[in-house]
What does this fold into?
Amino acid sequence: MSKHFLEIQKGNFTASEKNKVNDVNLIIEDQGQIISLLGPSGIGKTTILRTLAGLQKLDSGKIFLKGKLIASDKIHMEPEKRNIALSFQDNSLFPNYKVIDNINFGKKRLNGNNSNVKTDEITKLLHIEPILEKFPHQISAGEAQRVSLARSLLSKPDLLLLDEPFSNIDQSLKEEIQVSVKKLLKRINLTTIIVTHDSYEAFSTADKCGIILDQSLKQYDIPYNVHHEPNSIEVANFLNKGIFINVEVVDSECAVHRLRHDELGEIRGKLSNNFPTGSKVRLLLQPEDLIHDDQSALKLEVADRKFRGTNFIYTLKTKNGEHLPVFVHSHHIHQHEKSEKFGIKSPIYIDHLVCF
Amino acid sequence: MTKYNIWFFSSFLIALIVALPIITIFFSFFSETSNYFTLLKNTFLFDYISNSLTILISVLIITFLLGTISAYFISFYEFPLCKFFSWALILAFAIPGYIFAFSIIAFFENYGTAYSILTSFFGEYNYNPHIPKLDGVLGSIIAISFSLFPYVYVLTRSSFFFQSNNYIEVGQNLGLSEKETLFRIILPSARPAIIAGLALVAMECLSDFGTVSTFSVSTLTTGIYNSWLSFDDLNSANQISFILLIFILALLSIEIYSRKDAKYHQPGRGFKPINKIKLSGKKSLLAFSFCAMVFFISFVFPVSQMIYWTLKFPKYIQDIDILKINLNTIYLVGLSSLVLVLISLFINYGSRISKSKILNYLTNFSISGYAIPGVILAVAFITLFSNLSDIINANTNLGSTKKLFIGSMFGLILAYFIRFFSLSFNGIKSSYEKINNSIDESAYLLGYSKIKTFSRIHVPYLKNNIILIVVLISLEIIKELPITMILRPFNFETFATQAYVYASQDLLEAAALPSLFLISWATFLIIFSSKYILSQKN
It folds into this structure.
C-alpha cells in the first residue's frame, strides 16, 4: 500500500540485455504533477513507460497507482484495466479510421477520470482541426503525433504517459504546443510522465525531472536543481553544459565558500556538496558562469568562437590546456578573434559550486 | 518459453494437416511398388523427365520475353491503349492452360477454325497440309506460356513501378543512353521480381496436368495420374511425385530467395514515380503491336474460339446443366473460402498475440501446401486416407472411412485447404504485418479487450484484403483441375471438370460452353481484383 499518487519501489525494467533500467525508486506525491524522464536514446526510458502502461511485465519491484498495486513480479494488471494512457512516439493511429474517429476512440473508455475536457478544445489547442476528416496516411508525422496526444487526453486516464510527444512537431509550433499542453494538463489536474531526450523540453514542461543513465535513475529532482546542481559527473556530462576544472577548496566554512584556480584565481559561491578546506576537487564550469569584461585584468586567449544565434560561445584556453566555455550576447559591441586576449570579470562568483 | 495454449495446438494441427501429403510421399518412396515402376524406370521415366524439362525451359524463355517486354513498354512509355493493356494483359490469368490447349487444337486441326476462315475468304480448297499443326510438346509450350506469362508481367511491372525515377535520372546524368539505362539500371533492379515471377511460372508449369494431358504429352504429372488411374499403383505414383517434388522444392527455394532480395526494392522516402515517355511513330507502333499481339493471343484468341464453338454447336447448350454447375461452383468456392479465411484469420491472430517463435515456424511450415502440384496432392491424399482407412478397418469395428475423405465434399475442401492455405494465410499475414503492434497496444490502453481490438480494429482494416483473398481463392478453385477431378463427389461437376471430361472424350466442341463460363467467371474475378493489384494498395 502506498499513500502517494504513483510509487515505484525498487523497480527493475527490462526490454533487452542492453535496454534495461534497474532499481528505480520514484514517487509522484500528488495528482496533477508532471514528471519528465530524460536520458539518451535507447537507454530504457520507453521501457519504463511501457511497463507502467502494462504492455510489458515488471521484472521485480512494485508499482502502486493511487495506492493500488498494479505491477510486481507476481501481479500484472492488464493494460486495458489500468486506466493509463500512453501516447506512442511512432504513429499508432488506427489506419482505417479518420482522424476524428481516432480521437473519438479515446472517449469510449468507461472508467475514465472526471476531468472536464472537450474534443473541440483539444483539437483547437493541438491545431488539428483542419485534418479531422483525413486518414492517418494523409497526414504528416507531426500531425499524427498531435492526434495521438489528443486521443490519449480524451481518454481521461488517471495517468498519462507521453513518449517523445513533441519530437516530430515543427519547430515553429513546438513551443506553443508545449506551453498549451502544460497549461491544459495543469488545468485538468492530469498526472503525466513525459519521456524525452531534449533537456530543454524536460526542464520547461515538468515539475520534476528524472535523469536515466547507465541503466539507473541517477537523479530525480526539480529541473532547476538538476540543471544547476547535477549530483554526479555522469549527469553533468550528459547535460553537456560545461567542463570540469581542477580547483582547491580554500574556505568551506563561511557563508560564501571560496575556491582557487591556478589561473582564474579566486572563485566564490555556494558549494553544493561539503568538502573540507584544502581539498582538491573538480569544479563544473558552465558557459554562463564566466562573465566577459573587457576592462578586467584577468585575460585568457581565445581558442575558438561559435555563433549560436542569441549568443556567441567563446572557448578560452588556459596555460595548463583547459578549454573554458563562455557565453557572450551576440549584440555585444565587438567580437574577439582567435588568439586575441579575452577579459573575464574577476573575482569570479558562481551561485552553485558543483564539485566532485 | 512457448506456452502450449490453444494457438500452439491449432497451428500445430494445421501444420500437420498441410504436411501430410509430403509426409505420405516421403514414406511411399520406401514402399514396395508393382512391376510397373521398374518397367517405367527402364522405359518411359526418362521421357517423362525430358519432356517436363523441355517444356519447362521453353516456357521460361517465352514467359520471360512476353512478361518483361510488355511490362517494360507499359511501365516506361505512353502509346495508344497502354492504360488498357496495363490491366488487360492480366486477363490471360482467366484462361487455364488446358482451355488454351483446346483452342489451339480447335483452330489448327484438320478442317478446324483456321480451315473455315481460309475457306470463307479464299473459297473451297484443301488447306489442311498448309496449316501448321501446333500439337504435342510445341502446343503445350505455347499454351502454358501464354497462360502463365502474367506472373512475370505482374511482378516485373510492380518492380518497375517501385523503381524510383531518381535512379533513372542518375543514370542519365552519368551519361547512360536509353538502352544502357535499361540493361544496366532497370533490369538489374527488377531481377529479383523477374526471378520470382519465373520461379512461379516454373512451379505452375511443372504442376500442369490439364494442358499436357490434352496434347497427350507424357510428363511427370501425367505419369503420376496414369500410374494411379491406369495401373492402380499408388506407390509408383508417389515415387514419381517424389522426383517432381524435388524439382518443385528447388524452384520454391529460388522463389523465396528472390523475394528476400526483392524487399530491397521497396520505395523509400525519396521515391519519385517514373515519368513516362510519350512514344510516336514507329516506336509507338512497335509497343502497341507487341502488347496487342500478346493480348490477342493470350485472351482474345481462346475466348473467340470458345464463343465460335458454342454458337456453332448450340445443341450442347441444352445438354449441359449449366445452372447446376454454376451453383456447384458457388457452393464450392463459398465453402472453401469461408473455411480458408476463417482459419487463416484465427492462426494469424494467434501468431500475432502470442508472439511465439515456435508458432511462427509452425505456421511457416503449414504454408508449404501451395508448392505441391494438384495431381501429387490428390494422389497422396488418396494414398493417405486409403491406408488410414485400412488401419482403422483392421483394428476397429468402424468400417471403411474412405468415403469420408475420398469422393466427398469434405475431402475435396480439405484438399483445397491444404493447397490454398498458403495463399490465404500469407495474404492475411501481409496485411496484418502492416498493422503496427503499437496500434494494438493503443487499443488496449484505450480500454479495449483483445477480442474487441480484433473486431473493431483488425477486421475493418483487413476487410479489403479478405475480399481480395476470397477473389484469388475463387479464381484458383474455378480453374483447378486435377484435385477436383480426382477427389470430387460422384457426378459433381465444375466448369473445369466438365470441360476436361468432354475434351478427354474428343468432344472439344462440347467443352466450349463450360470453358466459356469458366473464363467469364475468372475474367470477372480478375477485373475485380486487378483494381487492387494495379493500385498497389494491397
In short: Chain B has 24 helices and two strands. Chain B has two domains: 1-32+313-538, 46-300. Strands of chain B lie at 77-78, 277-278.
